[in-house]
Amino acid sequence: MDFYSIFTQLSVVRYQLSAISYQSSGISYQLSAISRQVSLITYQLSVITYQLSLISYHLSVISYQLSAISYQSLAVGHGT
Q1: Sign of the C-alpha dihedral, residues 72, 74, 77, 78?
Q2: How many CA atoms lie within 13 A of 14 on its CB side?
Q3: pTM for the complete prediction?
């Protein structure tokens, strides 16, 4: 092989390595974006879970109040 042929092949290899590096960089960026989206979804789900727990708490308070009203109605109805 002459010098020109070796130089040409090395240039091709260098170009291919550069392309692989560029693709790896793109994949890394996409994975980072996916990771950020997953983090955001996880945060949103935790907020929804918190809101549902608040709703559950308020419903239990309402249930307790309705039970108290029912008990008072029974007590008034029986004259106690």
Answers
A1: negative
A2: 6
A3: 0.62
As a whole number of Å, the end-to-end CA separation of the chain is 112
In a structure prediction context, what are the per-residue pLDDT tens digits for the chain, which is 80 residues long?
Answer: 688 888 899 999 999 999 999 999 999 999 999 999 999 999 999 999 999 999 999 999 999 999 999 999 888 877 65
Helices (H), 1-80: 3-77
Query: CA–CA separation, 39 vs 20, rounded Å?
Result: 28
Structure token digits, residue 18: 């550069």
Q: Which residue has the tokens 């039970």?
A: 67
How far apart, in whole angstroms, are the C-alpha atoms of residue 28 and residue 67?
58
